[in-house]
């Protein structure tokens, strides 16, 4: 493995003075890659509205064509504490705008927000209905830790048969040669997210060599995207310090059985209330009838082809199959959609769509599942 650089970090520089560092964080045209740049302001912002607008060059098209490279406005939308330089410094998530009124074409947050508002306000009267939907989302982010060549750092194909191996939750170097440094990255990420105020729910050692997962949520409405994006940013920043790469690609090593998911968990107030399982079953029925290609494109606007590679990869037993919709409590691994065991016991809760990949665009996906289950837009 490549030597990790974590122990080479210089000691923390003490902070003096009153000025505050804002690390502006934004998603590029891919919908899952994070970028950042930093500015210094005179006083600590108390809310995101106090963070100034900025600008940045970005491709205003998911294909990243040269002619679509535009100078656009960066608008702060969510503010977190900075786990790298500590309070009062901040991480500031932004989305892209053409003008103050016109969102950029790559701004999937804007349309997501509009759809979420439709759920909680009567379109004719503008009033809140008696029982608003109050959508909640949770995303399970899987990723691989790799060295510079893109190969998972604990991968030993001569030693293990990964197709029959079950590594999930296992501890010990006998199963994975670099699990110690991977676990340290995963746990430090968890602590950094908690410091920042990112709504992380836990982490788990996943099934493949050097594969890990953490969960974000449940978050209400559009905030699922803000929290997932900031968690991804913190993960990549920490990996930089360790001298390691992390990849969110669903099939990081083509032709291998390795695949990463971004399971999407969803509920409405009706599903969470007593007896809500009937609404969960209704939503699953809507999903089963929805055009799968259209929905997968919402889940992952730029890398649908990579997700299709994952869903047609027959050498991995750990994911659903393309165009074979199932909701099967007895075969979790291959099920497209799942009702978790405790939801069945409690007869209320949420459902899990297991088809989205690890490069899921959280805003587009949250909007997509609402359009499919509630508005029936893909029937
Ligand atoms: P599993 O690996 O069994 O699929 P996890 O524990 O990894 O389950 O993930 C469960 C996910 O479900 C988490 O992201 C969590 O935030 C989310 N979740 C829990 N309750 C709800 C709910 N009521 N509505 C939406 N998402 C939820
Ligand atoms: Mn999980
Ligand atoms: Mn998982
Ligand atoms: Mn899951």
UniProtKB/TrEMBL annotation:
One of its GO terms (cellular component) is cytoplasm. This is glutamine synthetase. Transmembrane segments: none annotated. It comes from Mytilus coruscus (Sea mussel). Its EC number is 6.3.1.2. InterPro entries: Gln_synt_N_sf, Gln_synth/guanido_kin_cat_dom, Gln_synth_cat_dom, Glutamine_Synthetase. PROSITE patterns: GS_CATALYTIC (PS51987). Keywords: ATP-binding, Cytoplasm, Ligase, Nucleotide-binding. The keyword GTP-binding does not apply. One of its GO terms (molecular function) is ATP binding. The keyword tRNA processing does not apply.
């Amino acid at each position: 493995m490549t030597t990790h650089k974590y122990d080479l970090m210089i000691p923390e520089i003490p902070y003096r003075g009153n000025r505050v560092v804002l690390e502006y964080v934004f998603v590029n045209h891919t919908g899952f890659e994070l970028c950042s740049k930093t500015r210094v302001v005179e006083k600590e912002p108390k809310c995101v509205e106090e963070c100034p607008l900025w600008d940045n060059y970005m491709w205003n098209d998911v294909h990243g064509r040269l002619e679509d490279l535009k100078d656009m406005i960066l608008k702060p939308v969510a503010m977190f504490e900075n786990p790298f330089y500590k309070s009062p410094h901040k991480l500031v998530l932004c989305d892209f705008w053409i003008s103050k009124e016109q969102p950029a074409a790559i701004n999937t947050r804007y349309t997501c927000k509009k759809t979420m508002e439709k759920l909680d306000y009567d379109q004719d009267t503008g009033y809140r209905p008696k029982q608003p939907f109050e959508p909640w989302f949770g995303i399970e982010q899987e990723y691989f830790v790799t060295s510079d060549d893109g190969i998972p750092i604990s991968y030993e194909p001569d030693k293990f048969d990964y197709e029959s191996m079950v590594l999930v939750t296992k501890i010990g170097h006998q199963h994975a040669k670099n699990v110690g440094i991977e676990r340290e990255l995963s746990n430090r990420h968890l602590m950094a997210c908690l410091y920042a105020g990112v709504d992380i729910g836990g982490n788990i050692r996943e099934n493949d060599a050097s594969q890990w997962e953490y969960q974000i949520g449940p978050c209400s409405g559009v905030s699922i995207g803000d929290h997932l994006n900031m968690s991804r940013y913190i993960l990549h920043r920490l990996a930089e310090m360790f001298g390691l790469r992390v990849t969110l690609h669903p099939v990081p090593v083509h032709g291998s059985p390795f695949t990463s998911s971004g399971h999407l968990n969803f509920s409405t107030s009706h599903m969470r209330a007593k007896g809500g399982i009937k609404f969960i079953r209704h939503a699953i029925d809507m999903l089963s009838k929805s055009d799968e290609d259209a929905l997968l494109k919402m889940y992952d606007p730029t890398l649908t082809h990579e997700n299709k590679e994952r869903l047609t990869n027959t050498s991995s037993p750990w994911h659903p199959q393309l165009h074979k919709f199932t909701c099967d409590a007895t075969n979790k691994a291959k099920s497209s959609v799942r009702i978790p065991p405790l939801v069945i016991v409690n007869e209320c809760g949420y459902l899990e769509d297991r088809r989205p990949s690890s490069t899921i665009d959280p805003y587009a996906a949250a909007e997509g599942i609402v359009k499919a289950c509630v508005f029936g837009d893909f029937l």
